[in-house]
Amino acid sequence: xxxxxxxxxxxxxxxxxxxxxxxxxxxxxxxxxxxxxxxxxxxxxxxxxxxxxxxxxxxxxxxxxxxxxxxxxxxxxxxxxxxxxxxxxxxxxxxxxxxxxxxxxxxxxxxxxxxxxxxxxxxxxxxxxxxxxxxxxxxxxxxxxxxxxxxxxxxxxxxxxxxxxxxxxxxxxxxxxxxxxxxxxxxxxxxxxxxxxxxxxxxxxxxxxxxxxxxxxxxxxxxxxxxxxxxxxxxxxxxxxxxxxxxxxxxxxxxxxxxxxxxxxxxxxxxxxxxxxxxxxxxxxxxxxxxxxxxxxxxxxxxxxxxxxxxxxxxxxxxxxxxxxxxxxxxxxxxxxxxxxxxxxxxxxxx
Length: 351
Prior knowledge:
Layout (H helix, E strand, L loop, with lengths): L7 H6 L5 H8 L5 H25 L4 H26 L7 H14 L4 H14 L14 E2 H5 L3 H11 L1 H14 L11 H25 L1 H27 L14 H8 L2 E3 L2 H6 L6 H6 L5 H10 L1 H4 L3 E3 L11 E3 L4 E3 L3 H14 L1
Parallel strand pairs: 1-4, 2-3
Antiparallel strand pairs: 4-5
Helix pairs in contact: 3-4, 4-5, 4-11, 5-10, 6-10, 9-11, 10-11
């Protein structure tokens, strides 16, 4: 970017390209045909893969693992359908969104109305330093970390450890945590958790009785673990990347938070398909009413959106090193940066 050249968000806010609002509105109209086709090309192959895993386990459980990885891709895609239904963007009918959202929620072990409530809070607070804590990855500023007790620092380092964050936490989140409503949830959200739990219990009893509980649980937990890891990684990269936007509430802006606080994760086409185009996360946060099957088209329809710097699959691995938000420098840093801060503070104390 040239010196004094306005940023992307500044261009949008200054209405330099008024057409972008019309383009966004154009792609907010769901397609019943596309929605039904996406449900079919996701759930039917997933069911086929599940049965193939069941047959493969008679030969060797090692044959189940690669099939489980592929099946996990369809579970991620199923979650994207559930996600869009939660935004009332997948179908035109609200009732259709709620029915499909509940059913895909059972398949992904996610209570539909409860998740929809928490996710709406995420969208309304993303990038706001003063409203962290709901539907996001625990992130402390450097100063907050330095002022924390030893126990809190230990808990934070444990929570941000890659093995905990991407292996243990996903399975815990989907298999256990989401079986309980969050304090502050309304009656409908609480009931959503209970009805989902009953439906999951019915699914486990039915599938376990049909295929055997040992085989069912082994296959399903493997698929859930892999899909959960992929899902948490996608969410992590969408909001923990180089150049991400964070601001205090007084300075926070929704449009800037969408375009600069949500990444354009440019994935290979096959991974883009399995992840339901959610890599176009800057477009999704700009307008959650755009269904996933239109996100790429919306991105390509406006040059302003295309000027967002993409995060590639290779470059996204750098996100593993991010641990804290350096507020003065306005960037994510690793723990090694703490040494620099300590040195600067000592020098300042001497003077």
